[in-house]
Amino acid sequence: MPTRRQVLAAVTAMAAAPHRAVARGRPSQGAAGSAGARPGWVAPLEGDISRLVTASMGSTQGWDRLAELCDTFGGRLTGSRNLELAIEWAAETMRRDGLEHVRLQETKAPYWVRGAESLDIMTPVASPLVMLGLGGSVGTPPDGLTAPLMVVRSFDELRTRASEVTGRIVLYDVPFTSYGQTVTYRAAGPSQAARFGALATLVRSVGPMGLRTPHTGALTYQADLPRIPGAAIPVEDANRLARLVARGVPVTLRLRMAAQTLADADSANVIGEITGRERPDEVVLLGGHFDSWDPAGGASDDGVGCIVTWEAARLMKQLALRPRRTVRIVLFTNEENGLRGGLAYRDGFAADAAKHVMALESDIGVFEPMRLGFTGNDRARQMMADVVDLLRPLGFPPLGPGGGGADIGPIAQVGQVPTMALSGDTTQYFQIHHTPADTVERIAPREVAKAAAGIAAVAWAAAEMPEALPR
Amino acid sequence: MPTRRQVLAAVTAMAAAPHRAVARGRPSQGAAGSAGARPGWVAPLEGDISRLVTASMGSTQGWDRLAELCDTFGGRLTGSRNLELAIEWAAETMRRDGLEHVRLQETKAPYWVRGAESLDIMTPVASPLVMLGLGGSVGTPPDGLTAPLMVVRSFDELRTRASEVTGRIVLYDVPFTSYGQTVTYRAAGPSQAARFGALATLVRSVGPMGLRTPHTGALTYQADLPRIPGAAIPVEDANRLARLVARGVPVTLRLRMAAQTLADADSANVIGEITGRERPDEVVLLGGHFDSWDPAGGASDDGVGCIVTWEAARLMKQLALRPRRTVRIVLFTNEENGLRGGLAYRDGFAADAAKHVMALESDIGVFEPMRLGFTGNDRARQMMADVVDLLRPLGFPPLGPGGGGADIGPIAQVGQVPTMALSGDTTQYFQIHHTPADTVERIAPREVAKAAAGIAAVAWAAAEMPEALPR
To answer: Under 8 Å CB-to-CB from B116, ≥6 apart: which residues?
Structure first.
């Protein structure tokens, strides 16, 4: 990775480079880091982009703020006092930053509380296991559920052995491949096993093996099936249970969960802006989600996504840069277990959906190697690719596919909005997301600064370019 | 690492090599893996040693047995039913292996129970922390102790700021350097802070940062000072508290621990032997400790030490090898919080202490790179170094210093016994020992087989050599 000195040298050189004529070739195929031939519309932006990048890379403000958020408020599950206080802090801090029109967009949202919980082997020998209840799960009776264990490796095996399921606690011992492939056992597992009479389900954590690290996350009950409790256990605990059963040892477990879903809570998106100087009604939307699961402060999922998008606007304010269009930061609520923040934004801004010229979400961390992705038409993609090429000295690869995010999805769909995403390395991310280990220690200050720099650059370009991104 | 095929080829070649004349040079300075010149007394042992090594490296029995132990019984804290049942299982299994004079050596031992426990930030914003009470700690009142936090980085700082300590919960936020240097804050921290009026102490976990992984372990109260509760918190939680305090945020914590020490429990060492064919009263003592802390099955600390020493005897039995002297396996109880097993062994075998010709303990795991160490006089060291040179094809380095172990220490001291140790890589070991992550997943079957092979080789040599190791 380049040093700060190298980055500063690179961006200074970038700012000083003579502007080139438009080139319709694919700059992303050029030599990495070379100035290359750039289209003419980009040239007038380069100076301000280099100032934003320099300011971000020269500061640890983003990391410091992320640490302050996570240290002070801890886990920020929807409905918790932790999230409520963090929302107040964010709005106050945005105002202190000088962001404009800072406000809360209120919404009702699901309110699930974990309560006390435990999982124990009862036979052959009493021994506690590590576990985390799944978000949205029902609880057990106060004395818990005590039942024999059944281990399956797939839904196919569950169906094949359906006659054995009744009255059992089912463990889905499914090795992690990718999040997309494996998460279905966490989300749909309880209802699928309830169909055959299971009392509860456990899922081998959806992620690589950690250090006895359980991964929580939401389950989704099917409306026509009984609701049974669901919990995640670490890979090691799943292995242990599977080995016992493979040795022919009958295993009885006791699961106790005081989890419950209360009446919907009051929550809110936090919104702050840099109002556009020429077309204030046209909006570049940037954000992450401010809620997190409860076992940790949600540093990567998604405190850092909030902080780095917020930093993009703060840096513009700090440098007294006011773009042609409005840059709007939204810290969405309730992504983890309801998406009510994203839905409330869509509903509240539906009339202006088509005025959103670009929407960017950061919700896959900022672990290196990080990248920017885009979803939209080819001409818009090429324009943003030209901007991302300016970030090569920072180590950004050419613009990839895959814009969007859960929270910006609803408004983007209504407004046919071109979307972007900043994404970190997924291996590191899925190691710790939804676990007690999602802490700020794992994120380098430079990663935060770089992500903020990259977002500031593409946001500035989208907000400042003469004509809005084509859609 | 060599493949199993390479190892078999190497040990076969070793067994077939012509015997060499004695060489008084230092074979350990020769080319690694070369047959070198070996002293004449070693030659008659080489064939049987190669059979032991081949048998061990061709089997996963050690790993399988370790998994069975940890899976079935879980944490084996002294006094627990888990340890009691595991002791019965070990004795039965030794008998099934054909070990001789299998028996329990009973002893009373300290009986500490953890009970429910928790640590919460109360102000600025309520938020749970991860913690593990320290072994031997007193509990808190039922409602817990709620007090302001004070963070110190050393005992010096504690003394300098002694006037601030009264009525506080003190965190020793001391970065991990080595276990030996840092463990004093865990062991002595509570009494040192109690001296100045602290209500309780926390210690930054004595190990490298894991994934929010707390390290428990024993504390030691000073008799003339008040007994206050002590707990360990993960590095991340210590960082969080230290950062809050560094920002000038007053932090109040609530510590709840139902820990208590009950009347001494009945426990036992498990002993099994291969009785010597010529000098049955002369003993090669091999062992590890069978108790563990409660948060995990103690795979590395020290299930594996028990299994690999036990394997050495089992392999001799399997190959119908009966050495000149007795090989005695002892699975010691209560190493973690009392050492009563080692002391009971010393007391029970005091009259025979001088008949112990060598004692070996394995209690630092078997993570590669592993090594064998020796403590004794130069002539004995050279003899065992010559034996260890036979293990170079397996990847063992020349014999190092540092024989001994906590459990064999008492008898070795009484009998002036030459001692050995098998030790694994300490970085990996201290990452997980005393944590919930001390599971069998982290140990490779080949590491278990290799450790057992190495121990079988040196045990065979010490039990079979014509004259006992000089002391």
So the answer is: B256, B258
CA distance B133 to B434: 11
Where b means 16+ CB within 10 Å and e means fewer, B302-341 reads bbbbbbbbbbbbbbbbbeebbbbbbbbbbbbbbbbbbbbb
Q: How many CB pairs under 8 A join A and B?
A: 95
Cα B414 to chain centroid distance, Å, stands at 21
B435 and A211 within 8 Å at the Cβ level: the answer is: yes
Q: CATH number for A115-258: choose from 3.40.50.10680, 3.40.50.10380, 2.60.410.10, 3.50.30.30.
A: 3.50.30.30
Min CA distance, B82 vs chain A (Å)?
Answer: 7
Q: Are A147 and A238 in contact (CB under 8 A)?
A: no
Select the CATH number that applies to the domain covering A4-110+264-464 from these four: 3.40.630.10, 3.40.50.2000, 3.40.50.720, 3.30.413.10.
3.40.630.10
Cβ–Cβ gap B247/A68 under 8 Å: yes
- CB-CB under 8 Å, A441 with B74: no
- B27 vs A314, more confident: A314
- Of A388-392, A443-447, A461-465, B175-179, the poorest mean pLDDT is in B175-179
Outline where DSSP puts E strands in A68-210: 100-113, 117-123, 127-129, 132-133, 145-152, 169-172, 200-204
Rounded average pLDDT over B61-73: 98
Q: Helix count (H) and strand count (E) of chain B?
A: 14, 16
Q: What is the pLDDT of residue A67?
A: 98
Rounded to the nearest angstrom, the minimum Cα separation between B121 and chain A is 9
Which has the higher per-residue pLDDT, B20 or A298?
A298
Which of A84, A273, A335, A336 does the annotation list as catalytic?
A: A335
Sequence ranges of the domains in chain A: 4-110+264-464, 115-258
Closest Cβ opposite residue B211 in set A82, A127, A432: A432
CB contact under 8 A, A126 and B81: yes
Same fold, A4-110+264-464 and A115-258: no
A157 is annotated as an active-site residue: no
Q: What is the ipTM of this complex?
A: 0.92
Q: Has this prediction a pTM greater than 0.95?
A: no
Question: B36: pLDDT confidence band, cut at 50, 70 and 90?
Answer: low
The arithmetic mean of pLDDT across residues B417-435, rounded, is 97
